[in-house]
Fold each of these.
Amino acid sequence: MTSPTSSRAQLSRPPLERMLKIHDELRRGALINCTKLMQTLEVSRKTVVRDIAFMRDRLDLPIEFDVQIQAYRYTQPVNAFPTVHMTEGELLALLVAQRALQQYRGTPFHRQLEVAFEKLAGGLRDRISFSPADELRAVSFKNIGLGRTDLAVFNTLSSAVLRQEEIVFDYRKPGVAKKSSRRVRPYHLANRENSWYLIGFDVERGGLRTFALPRIGAVALTKENFARPADFSPEKFFANALGVLGGTGDYQVVIRFTSAVAERVREREWHESQEMRDLPGGGLELKLRLGALMEVEQWILGWGAAAEVIGPEELRASLRKTVAALRKVYGS
C-alpha cells in the first residue's frame, strides 16, 4: 500500500515551482523554516535544504538562516527571481515558436507549452523591451487536417510508454465498423502528419504495429512490465515510410514531375532517401526508397496529371485502377 508520505512526494511541485514559492515567501518577509516549508510544499526536509542551497549557491540569492528568529530571510532586497539571459533575437525566436504552437491547438501538449512560453517571456519582461505583437505581425502558421486526440487516452498511453507497462485497449481499423481488443507493449508515441500514433508490440499478433490514437478507446493498464528492445528507435521504424505506414518491402519509386510543379517539389524534403534529377524542359525526376506503396500512391494522386510514376510497375498498375475508378465517378 502506498503511504501518505510517498503519495505527497509523487504529487509535489516541480523544483522551479518550489523555489519560486520559497522566493515569494522570503520577499514578503514571512517567517519560514524547514518545518513550515515541508508542510507548505509537501516535500521532505532533505528536499527543502537542497532547494535553498541551490538558490543560495547556484542562483546567488542572498539567503541566510537567522538563528534569532529561527527562520530563513533575504539579507538584502531581491526584486525578481533570477532568469536565463536571452538576447532580443533569441526571445523573438522563442515567440515565433510560440506562434507555431497554434497549429497544435487541441493536442495534449498545447496548454502546457503555452504556459511554459508565458513564464519564459514573463521572466524576461524586465530585461528586454520590444513589442512581440509588432514583430510577429507577418508570421503565421497553418496546417490542414490536425488530428483529434482524447487527452485521457493520451495521458494513459504516455504513462504506459514511460513505465514500460503493457496495456489493453479497443481498436477500430479504418473501414471496419467493429472494434477489436488489443494487448500491446507500447514503445513510442509519434506525431506524424499532424496526428498522434502509438508504436507498440502487439502481443497476440506477434509484431510491431502502428495505432492511430483517435481510433483507440477503453485504454487500461495491466500492471505487467516489459523491457523495450535496445535496438528499437522511431527513426529506424519510420525509415522506409513516406509518412506513417512503413512496410517490409523494398521499392525504388521513380516519379517524374512536369515543369509546372517541379519547383514546388524541389523546394521540400519529402524523405531521407530522396534523390532529385533535373529533366530537359524544366521537369524533375524524384527517386524514393520505401517499404510500402499505399501512402506514396495517395501522395502522387495529389499532384494530378503533373506527376507520372515510372516505376515500380505495381505502383503504375494500382494508379491505373484508381484512375479507372475516378473516371466512373466523374464521367469520361
Note: The first strand starts at residue 63 and ends at 66.
Amino acid sequence: MDYRLLGKSGFSVPVLSFGTATFGSGHEFFKKWGSADVEQARRLVDICLNAGVNLFDTADVYSNGQSEEVLGQAISGRRDKVLISTKATFRMSDNPNDVGSSRHHLIKACENSLRRLGTDYIDIYTMHGFDARTSVEETLRALDTLVQSGKVRYIACSNFSGWHLMKSLAISEKYGWARYMAHQAHYSLVRREYEWELMPLALDQNVSTLVWGPLTQGRLSGKFRRSQPIPEGSRIAQGAGEGPDIPDEWLYDVVDVLDAISHETNKTVAQVALNWLLQRPTVASVIIGARNEEQLVENLGAAGWSLTEEQIARLDAVSKTDMIYPYWHQHGFNRNPFPT
C-alpha cells in the first residue's frame, strides 16, 4: 500500500482508507449503507490491516455514535497499529448546543468521541460541515486547544466551499493556530465539481483531498447497467442517494468506458473508477466503504497499479462536466496548473 503526506504535515496516510459508516445500526438512514456488528467489523479491520490500510474514517453522527463504538471495539488492543479519523458538527440531540462548531460543542463532541472509540487521541479530527452561525475564529481556536492538549493530532474539514476553507486557512496563519491539513470531499467520475475551485485551492495551499463517495452510492460499482433495473438492496434503491440526480445516459456512457478499460486492464469497473481518483492532483486518500468482505477485497484491488495516460484521457473526456459561472469563463483563460 502506498502512502502520501497529509497536506503540509509530515504525517503519512494510506492511499486507500476505510469508511465505517456501515458499522452499527442505530439510525435508519445509515442502516441502508450497512449494519456491521463488532464481530463483522473486526473481520473487516483485519482485512484492511493485512492489505496495509490502517486509516479508518468515522463520525459521531454515524448511527448516533454506534459507528465509533463498534470501531473502538474492533480495534481494541491494537490502537498503535491504526489511524483514526472522526468528525463532528452535525446535530447529535435536541439540545440546542449539541450541534455546530462552537467551542462548547466541539470540546464536548471530541470527548464523547474519545470515550466511544476507547482512545485518548484522534489522529484526524474533521469538521463535518461549515457552521455559518459560529465565527471561524471560535472554531479554529477550539480546534487548536484540542491539538495543544494532545487529544487531536491533525485537523481537517469536510464539505466546505472555497471561501470557507480559504478564510479558515488565513485565520489559522494569522494567529499561528492549527490549520486544516485536508479537505474531505465528494469526488468521482460523475461528481467532478470539486475540480472547479476546491482543487485549485488545495493545490495552491497544499491541502490534501480525502475523497468520500468515490463510487457515488454504487453507481460506478459495475452493478448499474444500461436498460437494467436498479440493483435490489443498493443504496439508491433504498432511497439513500445523495446530491442531485445524475442523468442516466451520461452515467451509462461513463460506465461503458469503464467497462472497456476494465477488460483492457483485467480489473473490475469499481477498481478502475477508484484508480482514476488515485491519479488526480491533491488526492491523498480515497475512502472506500463495504457492506461485506467481498466488496472490501474488491475495492482494495484499486491500489498498486496505474491506469495509462490514454485510459485516463478517455475517462476524463467521457465524464467531462458542464461548468457553471464563473468557472466556464475562467476556463477560457486557462492558466490553471490543473486544466479541467
Note: Residues 3-331 form a domain with the TIM Barrel fold (CATH 3.20.20.100).
Amino acid sequence: MEYRFLGRSGLKVSVLSFGAATFGGGNEFFKAWGSTQADEARRMVDLCLDSGINLFDTANGYSNGLAEEILGKAIHGKREQLLISTKVFFPMAEGPNDLGTSRQHILAQVDASLKRLGTDRIDIYHMHAFDAFTPVEETLDTLNTLVHSGKVRYIACSNFSGWHLMKSLAVADRYGWTRYVAHQVYYSLIGRDYEWELMPLGIDQGLGALVWSPLGWGRLTGKIRRGQPLPANSRLHKTSAEGPPVEDEYLYRVVDAIDEIAKETGKSVPQIALNWLLHRPTVSSIILGARNEEQLKQNLAAFGWNLTPEQIATLDQASETSLAYPYWHQRGTSFRNPPAV
C-alpha cells in the first residue's frame, strides 16, 4: 500500500481508504447503498487492514448513527492500527439545534460519535456541509477547542464551495486556529467539476482530497452500458435523484474508452476508473465503498499497477466536458494562470 500525506499535515493516509456508508442500512436511502452488519463488517475491516488500508471513513448521519456503531464494533481491539474519519452537519433529531455546525450541535455530536465508535478520539473530523446560518468563527473556534482537548486530531470539510473553503481558511489564519487539512469531495471520471475551482484551491492552500463516490454514484461499475437496462440491484433505482446528474451519452462515451483500456490491461472498469484518480493532483485517498467482501477485494485491486500516460490521456479526452464561466475564459490566460491538470 502507498501512503500519502493528508494535505500539508504530518498525517499519512493510505491511498485507498474504506467508507462505511454501507454499514447498517438503517433507512431506504442507505439500504440502496448496502446493509452490512457487524460480523461481515469485522471481516471487511480485517481485509482492509491486511491490505494496508489505515483510514476508515463514516459519518454520524449514515443510517442515523448506525454506521458509526457497527464500525465501532468492527474495529474493537484494533483501534491503534487505524485512523477514523467521521462527520457532523445533517439532522440527528427533530429539535431546532439538532443540525448544522453550531457550537451546540458540534459538541453534542462529537461526544455521541465517540460513544458509538467506542473510542476516545476522532482522527479526522469533517464538517459534512457548509452551514450558512452559523458564523464561520463559531464553527472554527469550537473545532480548535476540540483539537486542543484531544478529542479530535485533525479537522476537514466536505462538499464546500470554493468561497466557503477559502473563507474558512482565512478565518482560521486570522485567529491562529487549527486549519482544515482536507476536503472530502465528489470526484470521478464522469464528475470532474472538482478540477475547476477546488483542485487549484487545494494545491494553493495545501488541502488533500479525500474522494467519495469515485465510481460516479455507481455508474462506473462496468454493469451500465449503452442499450442495456440498469442491473436489478443497482442503487441508481432508488438514489439517482440525490446523486450527480450525468447525461447518458456522456457516460457511454467514457465507458467505451474504459472498455478499450480494459482490453489492453486485463483490468475491470471500476479498477481503471479508480486507478485514474490515483494520478490526479491533490488526491490523498480514494474512499472505497463495498456491499460485500468480494466487491471490496475487486476494488482493492485498483492499486499496485499504473495506467500508461497514453491511457490516461485517452480517459482525459473521453471524459472532458464543457467548462462553465469563468473557467472556459481562463483557458485563454493559461500563460499566467495555468490549469491544475
Note: The radius of gyration is 20 Å.
